[in-house]
Design brief:
alpha/beta, binds zinc ion
Length: about 500
């Protein structure tokens, strides 16, 4: 054996034993997560009022330093929460887009982990090597109304140069004052992203942003790539195949790109979709596990051994998912039959307080959709699409409709019930029949992009499935992932 080979084996042993410990840490984080999950933040539509009491509590804990580092346009505090004594600074900020809360929730789970008495060795290792700085919910005004942009109506992530928003200025000032070694830029992305050429949602997507048009890789960017490769290995274990990599075209106005340029290894994490997880609580857990694992790896320096060539092996992000995809349906138009695939998005509409929502679905594509995928897919060969009928009796109120056996109505081809009195404030019902007003005219059934998907799928002339507000209901078993039907006036 040459001395070269021996050195190589020793190196590999060191690497693997280091990774072994980290793997244990990661799987322990995953299995004990329930203990640290911040129970008060269990829905996506969280507000500044929900996190401020938790921040106030941290400010009484001597381990943490809490500083108000800025204010949003509407005057909400932007707080920086720091812990640790190490020489390496790690800066994490979340929710610069108001409707992207998943990582904010995970940050408060991480605080619970840090304040607990558990994982003593790992925490000691982290806090003696690193200083951690968190800025959760950078856009609290946007969060208040669950929108991407801030109150000025701009995208803070295109304000890194102009610095017109107080939120963007705060982010820049904090970055500059810390001159952090690592920066975690935490976002949510559409649930319709998938890992390229697979039906797997991009549950997590990563980017080590470029700092110039040439997309050069210097040490700063390479370190971000290495940490991403490390986190990708973790997500692959818990959500196999469900990771995407963002296009790294340089965007001169974005924070990630500039922060990379300013010398902080910038890691963009985007929380996407996960089947049957509308509130993204499993994705929040994956954030918690992978970010804490990455922090531990940075503390130990093990990430340095990771080859950056593995970064490019992460599949690219694509956007080819529907909530519901119906394949090979028969559609009769002007007396002739055609075969169509139909793609449906179950879109969200906020209630006036922006604390809950209902779904109002749309057909977003039709035709040959063989290169697309669905969270839910029906092989519909032999099924004909027909419009639903209006129930012949007019009922006095929604209450009377709720007392009907909806499934029996659907089995008879009815998808609408007309009602005399509909309260003004109501937009949806929780049973699978659409409620229509006295004067509402049901449009002639036409499959078109943009229509609300309400129809029956017939098998040899008999209703076999119903699609109500974009939700598929099996009329034989009565089953389906139904959420709500609509009130149409
Ligand atoms: Zn975002």
């Amino acid at each position: 054996m040459t001395s070269h080979k021996l050195t190589l084996i020793i190196c590999l042993l060191m690497v693997f034993s280091g990774f072994g410990q980290e793997k244990d840490f990661t799987s322990n984080l995953y299995s004990t997560y329930g203990k640290y999950k911040e129970a008060t933040l269990d829905k996506r539509r969280i507000k500044h009022n929900d996190i401020q009491p938790l921040i106030n509590k941290l400010s009484t804990n001597p381990k943490f330093k809490v500083t108000v580092v800025g204010k949003s346009i509407e005057g909400r505090n932007l707080s920086l929460i720091s812990i640790g004594t190490g020489a390496t600074d790690v800066f994490l900020w979340s929710q610069m887009h108001g409707d992207e809360p998943t990582a904010t929730q995970a940050i408060f789970d991480i605080f619970n982990f840090l304040t607990s008495g558990d994982f003593k060795n790992e925490k000691e290792n982290i806090l003696k090597n690193l200083k951690l700085h968190f800025l959760p919910m950078l856009n609290p005004d946007g969060a208040e109304v669950y929108q991407r942009r801030n109150t000025l109506g701009i995208d803070i992530n295109r304000d890194a140069l102009a610095l017109q928003s107080p939120e963007g200025r705060t982010l820049k000032r904090v970055r500059d004052s810390l001159d952090a070694d690592f920066g975690f830029n935490l976002h949510d992305q559409s649930t319709y992203y998938n890992a390229e050429r697979t039906d797997k949602p991009a549950t997590i997507s990563y980017l080590a942003p470029a700092f110039n048009y040439e997309k050069d890789i210097n040490e700063v960017r390479a370190n971000a790539m290495k940490v991403i490769v490390y986190m990708n290995q973790i997500i692959q274990k818990y959500a196999p195949g469900q990771v995407g990599r963002y296009n790294d075209d340089f965007e001169p106005r974005a924070f990630g790109d500039n922060i990379q340029k300013w010398g902080t290894s910038a890691i963009l994490i985007e929380s996407g979709g996960y089947k049957s997880d509308p509130e993204k609580q499993e994705i929040r857990k994956l954030n918690y596990v992978s970010i804490l694992s990455a922090i531990y790896s940075i503390a130990k320096g093990n990430y340095k051994n990771i080859p950056i060539s593995d970064y490019d092996k992460i599949p690219e992000n694509d956007r080819k998912l529907f909530d519901l995809k119906l394949n090979n349906l028969t559609y009769n138009l002007l007396g002739k039959n055609y075969t169509l695939d139909v793609g449906i998005h179950q879109l969200e509409v906020d209630d006036p307080s922006h604390s809950t929502y209902y779904n109002s679905s749309r057909v977003v594509d039709q035709g040959d959709l063989s290169t697309y995928y669905g969270y839910e897919t029906l092989e519909g060969k032999g099924y004909s699409m027909v419009g639903g009928k209006v129930y012949p009796k007019i009922l006095p109120s929604i209450k009377e409709v709720s007392q009907l056996k909806a499934l029996d109505l659907l089995r008879s081809g009815f998808t609408y019930v007309r009602v005399e009195n509909i309260p003004k404030s109501e937009n949806y019902v929780s049973f699978p029949i659409n409620v229509i007003g006295k004067d509402y005219k049901v449009p002639e059934f036409k499959m078109r992009v943009g229509v609300i998907p309400n129809f029956i799928l017939e098998d040899k002339g008999k209703p076999r499935y119903a699609v109500i507000n974009g939700f598929l209901i099996d009329l034989k078993s009565g089953e389906g992932n139904f959420k709500n039907a609509l009130i149409l006036r």
